Amino acid sequence: MNSDQPGFSDPVGTWNRRFEADGYLFGTEPNAWLRQHARVWRPGQRVLCVADGEGRNSVWLARQGLVVDAFDIAELGVAKARRLAEEHRVWVNLAVANCDSLAWPESVYDGVAAIFVQFAEPAMRERLFANMQRSLKPGGFLLLQGYTPKQLEYKTGGPPVVSHLYTQAMLREAFAAMEIVELREYEAQVAEGCAHRGHSALVGMVARKR
Tell me: the pLDDT tens digits for 70-118? Predict the structure, then answer.
């Protein structure tokens, strides 16, 4: 699942309705930040894709030779992810789950990819970030991308609520226990399906578990 308007009372139904249309809401190509930084992982390493929607990022990582687990709250999104994996002849271990119900393992993953997971309000986000860190092995890398508050001016994707958006200071505090390898706010043209499209205010992070 990628970021969109938060606050709906039926997230499962909302995302299933969004994913039921033909095609892929966020496209089938991987997120640019993920593509640019995935070299931190080596083929054969195990990576978790958080709330991966229709599978664009998890399938691409599997195509790079990684062992990939992924989950999403929407069963229709996961079904599309399975089809995408089959089309590319790769295997992704996919599950239907939400961020709180997932049985997060401890110190299992060499990597975690969290790309536009800004559906999470602050309390859920705190739990999610803690679970992501706990699931990493020492030395494992987290790749994260989100929108900054300036995105409210552009309205080209993401939640329209400032509390769901990321700043460098917020991420430094949330991941203070990790080694921040790269943390950058920047602006770029985004073209990810029809849902993330246009000039955007972004933040990207690469962090390593100590």
Answer: 999 999 999 999 999 999 999 999 999 999 999 999 999 999 999 999 9
Alpha-carbon distance of 114 to 165, in angstroms, equals 14
Query: 130-171: per-residue pLDDT in tens?
Result: 999 999 999 999 999 999 999 999 999 999 999 999 999 999
What are the structure tokens assigned to 150, written together? Answer: 């300036």
Pairing of strands 196-209, 178-192: antiparallel
Domain ranges of the chain: 11-209
Could you give the 3-state DSSP secondary structure of residue 31? Answer: coil
Dmax over Cα atoms in the chain, in whole Å? 43
Asked whether the beta carbons of 49 and 109 are under 8 A apart, the reply is no
CATH topology for 11-209? Rossmann fold (3.40.50)
